[in-house]
């Protein structure tokens, strides 16, 4: 994830520099041997010194990283194969319950996806195609059209690529005559925070406090900087002045989770759908002695009230896809948003 505003960019630059310096020394091949035991200790220590959610996860579900070390250490044997080691280390990382935690070998990626796989998807490509039709417009990765009740609909499936300000001006101009707007980010797994900021900046007329951020200042599990403000400035381009509904589901993650965090700060915005998946830690990468790369959350972010959004953000209106509506060819979440915007 990447932040565009100057003050946030400076803060993130400092955060990245500090974290990368620490991460580059945490798996020193001179300190840890390239064998199963050495790679295990290198990985556990890197996470121990630089992961940012230990206290939060301990309170949430009782995570004890020392106990994790003891339990998984008993599974390490120098006679084990690389595949067996990968499985054990991947399972250990899964104890963090963090979608930003991954380990990469040439044949596989260790990941934790239960944050969305264990929940209803609450989105249907077939239904989305019905609402978009075939004559929708496309700009900067956005698909948009005007629905038959004069409500604008914008489908934003990813923040993986930069958004052009001119493109966003054209989108806002085309939808300007609509009575209200739906921004559907269901299944948006994130990408660039800059893109999330660019889009959110179209819905505020004043600089707004949208959250806070910290970075690690030492190897201790509680060694963090003071909370620094995240402030979002309004776009210099065309801005939306009417009501907005943001549609969410559990697969909304990382930069998309940040987008929801921003939008909930604005008075004309409602969030409709399911709780988001979360992902409130800025991820950084490192490498084990055997060459496997690892990334994990190192800089925590919070909402405007100082509350972590690592495990997601609740909608204003909790709505799921109804099987009856699905059979009728209707998207329950879109229809509920249209009803709320029309009130």
How would you portray this structure in words?
There is one protein chain. The protein has 12 helices and 13 strands. With 343 residues, it is of the alpha/beta class. The strands form 2 sheets. A 7-stranded mixed beta sheet has the order 3-4-5-6-9-10-13, sandwiched between helices. Strands 1, 2, 7, 8, 11 and 12 form a 6-stranded antiparallel beta sheet that branches. The longest helix has 21 residues, at 6-26. The protein is elongated.
Count of alpha/pi helices: 12
Give the overall silhouette. elongated
pLDDT averaged over residues: 92
* Series of H and E elements: HHHHHEEHHEEEHEHEEEHEEEEHH
Count of DSSP E strands? 13
Query: What gap, in angstroms, lies between the N and C termini?
Result: 36 Å
Structural class: alpha/beta
Helix content: 25-40%
Strand content: 15-25%
Give the spatial strand order of the biggest sheet: 3-4-5-6-9-10-13
> Uncertain segments of ≥5 residues (pLDDT<50)?
1-29
């Amino acid at each position: 994830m990447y932040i565009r505003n100057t003050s946030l960019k400076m803060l993130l630059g400092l955060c990245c520099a500090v974290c990368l310096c620490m991460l580059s020394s945490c798996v020193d091949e001179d300190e840890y041997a390239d064998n199963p035991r050495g790679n295990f200790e290198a990985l556990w220590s890197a996470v121990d010194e630089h992961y940012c959610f230990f206290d939060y996860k301990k309170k949430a579900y009782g995570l004890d990283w020392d106990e994790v070390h003891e339990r998984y250490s008993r599974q390490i044997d120098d006679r084990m194969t690389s595949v067996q080691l990968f499985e054990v280390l991947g399972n250990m990382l899964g104890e963090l319950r963090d979608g930003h935690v991954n380990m990469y070998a040439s044949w596989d990626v260790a990941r934790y996806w239960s944050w969305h796989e264990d929940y209803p998807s609450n989105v249907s490509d077939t239904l989305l195609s019905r609402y978009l039709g075939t004559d929708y417009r496309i700009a900067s990765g956005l698909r948009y059209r005007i629905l038959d009740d004069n409500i604008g609909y914008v489908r934003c499936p990813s923040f993986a690529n930069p958004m052009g300000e001119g493109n966003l001006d054209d989108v806002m101009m085309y939808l300007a005559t609509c009575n209200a707007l739906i921004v559907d980010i269901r299944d948006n797994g994130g990408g660039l925070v800059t893109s999330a900021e660019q889009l959110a900046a179209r819905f505020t007329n004043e600089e707004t406090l949208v959250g806070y951020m910290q970075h690690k200042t030492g190897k201790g599990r509680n060694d963090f900087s003071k909370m620094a403000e995240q402030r979002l400035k309004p776009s210099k381009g065309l801005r939306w002045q009417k009501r907005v509904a943001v549609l969410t589901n559990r697969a909304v993650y990382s930069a998309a989770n940040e987008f929801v965090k921003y939008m909930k700060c604005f008075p004309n915005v409602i969030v409709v759908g399911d709780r988001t998946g979360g992902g409130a830690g800025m991820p950084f990468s490192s490498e084990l002695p055997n060459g496997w790369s690892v990334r994990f959350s190192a800089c925590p972010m919070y909402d405007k009230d100082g509350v972590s959004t690592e495990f997601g953000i609740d909608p204003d209106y909790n709505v799921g896809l109804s099987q009856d509506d699905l059979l009728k060819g209707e998207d329950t979440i879109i229809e509920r948003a249209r009803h709320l915007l029309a009130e």
